[in-house]
Specification:
2 domains; binds manganese (II) ion; 6-stranded parallel sheet; alpha/beta; inorganic pyrophosphatase (n-terminal core); 12 helices; 333 residues; Diaminopimelate Epimerase, Chain A, domain 1
Length: 333
């Protein structure tokens, strides 16, 4: 199997999946790919390691999503497509099941290292803003017409991974593609409302208490927040999107890196890093076995919360110190 389109043409029933806690890019790209496969006369089932977030329920009006728990049955499939990640180890119990199935695995991804993941064929471009943008390119390569539902998925993928066009990956392709999706009837304000304006009444207090725990370190260049199990539990009850904690901290003048640490119930700590400027957070988390992009990356750390904080602070301090010519015009803490 040499080409990705060859893999799509060879299979007849596809299982589409992605990483745990699938985000808007992952599920949006899955919707679009399911539409593409349907246009090719194939069957496609989306099965993720976790249920569809309430924020993305609007997609379920036109697309079926299911989630897998160990021991569950799976729909029939002869080909697996992994979206927005490249390793079955990120797909939970379902990943193990798929590895044992012997079915060929295709990868569509835009993360660093995607080419060397578990795919027998990969469609990877680390410069692409989102995985959904790659699915849009596949429609063009296969000369298939877009549908409104596919356009909705692609639009969601673009806004999810560019922070609604605020991040530096919001390039000309992103704006052109987003505009094109509107011609298929996508309504950006409806999508925004569906995702962000249905918060639980307790979500402001979880946000407030999370932000109150932030610390400025490394001379004001690092903002760090730790959510311990108790706060995580309140967040889960309120369906709180922990990414909301990142933005106000990223907006503090002088902050170059934001680190969010979440204590998990299995004793590990999940860290998410976001960078402003030229700090490469992907290389920082790679020291802890994580991955992602230069400006947004994460890792699961097998450490206690306090140890994880110290280890990260040290790694980030080193990265900040190692940058060429630390600017003198940066405001102090
Ligand atoms: Mn993505």
């Amino acid at each position: 199997m040499k080409t990705f389109s060859g893999l799509l043409r060879a299979g007849s029933s596809f299982l589409l999946t992605g990483h745990e806690n699938p985000d808007g890019d992952c599920v949006g790209a899955q919707v679009a790919l399911a539409q593409l496969l349907c246009a090719l006369g194939k069957t496609a089932h989306i099965v993720n390691p976790d249920p569809l977030s309430r924020r993305f329920e609007f997609l379920a009006k036109h697309t079926d999503f299911s989630s897998y728990r160990a021991g569950d049955g799976l729909p029939e499939f002869d080909t697996v497509i992994l979206l927005d990640c490249s390793q079955l180890s990120r797909v939970g119990a379902l990943g193990k099941r798929l590895a044992n199935s012997g079915a060929p695995i295709g990868v569509i991804d835009h993360h660093v290292g995607g080419e060397s993941g578990d795919g027998c064929v990969s469609y990877v471009d680390v410069t692409a803003a989102s995985t959904g943008a790659l699915v849009r390119r596949l429609f063009r390569e296969l000369e298939l017409p877009l549908t409104r539902d596919a356009a909705e998925g692609i639009f969601l993928s673009l806004v999810s991974d560019t922070g609604w066009f605020r991040y530096s990956n919001a390039d000309r392709e992103v704006f052109a593609m987003a505009g094109e999706m509107l011609t298929f009837g996508v309504q950006p304000s409806d999508i925004y409302d569906a995702i962000y304006r249905r918060n639980h009444p307790d979500s402001p207090s979880v946000l407030c208490d999370s932000l109150a725990r932030h610390r400025l370190l490394c001379g004001g260049q690092l903002a760090m927040v730790s959510m311990d199990k108790a706060l995580i539990e309140r967040g889960l009850k309120a369906d709180f999107d922990t990414d909301e904690v990142l933005e106000p901290l990223r907006c503090i003048e002088g902050v170059e890196v934001v680190a969010l640490l979440k204590e998990r119930f299995d004793g590990t700590v999940k860290c998410s890093l976001r960078a402003r400027g030229d700090v490469d957070v992907q290389s920082i988390v790679s020291q802890f076995g994580g991955g992602g992009h230069k400006k947004a990356a994460g890792a699961t750390m097998r450490l206690g919360l306090a140890e994880a904080e110290r280890a990260l602070e040290q790694a980030i301090a080193t990265a900040l110190g190692a940058r060429p010519a630390a600017s003198e015009d940066r405001p102090g803490p």
